[in-house]
Amino acid sequence: MILVQAIIQPIRLSTVRSALEEAGYDETMVSDATGYGRQRGQTAVFRGNEYRVDLLRKVMLELIIDEDDLDEVIDIVRSSARTGTKGEIGDGKIFVLPVLDAIAI
Description:
This is Nitrogen regulatory protein P-II family. InterPro entries: N-reg_PII, N-reg_PII-like_a/b, N-reg_PII/ATP_PRibTrfase_C. The strands form two sheets. A four-stranded antiparallel sheet has the order 2-5-1-6, covered by helices on one side. The protein is elongated and about 50 Å long. A hairpin with a 2-residue loop joins strand 3 and strand 4 (49-53). The relative contact order is 0.34. Helix content is 21%, strand content 39%. It has one domain (2-41, 50-98): Alpha-Beta Plaits, CATH 3.30.70.120. The mean pLDDT is 88. The chain is built from two helices and six strands; from the N terminus they run βαββββαβ.
């Protein structure tokens, strides 16, 4: 089993979830995340004062899949999470981790 963690922009969450559900991957966990990568935050103006927002809001989508499904899931997430035709800085990251066992409570 494989754990796929996708950190994406919040505005793309419904698109990514819909694409995964259509392909039969409907068991996911979603949580809020903040951080930055190559973006290094953003500059904003509030009441005439300029300030820097270092931590940007993101969403982490996690799902456990069979190893055979990994390439398909990565393609689905990558294509549905992109904001441009080739993707833009800040669109997100996908992490792949091995899962030794999953135990129901």
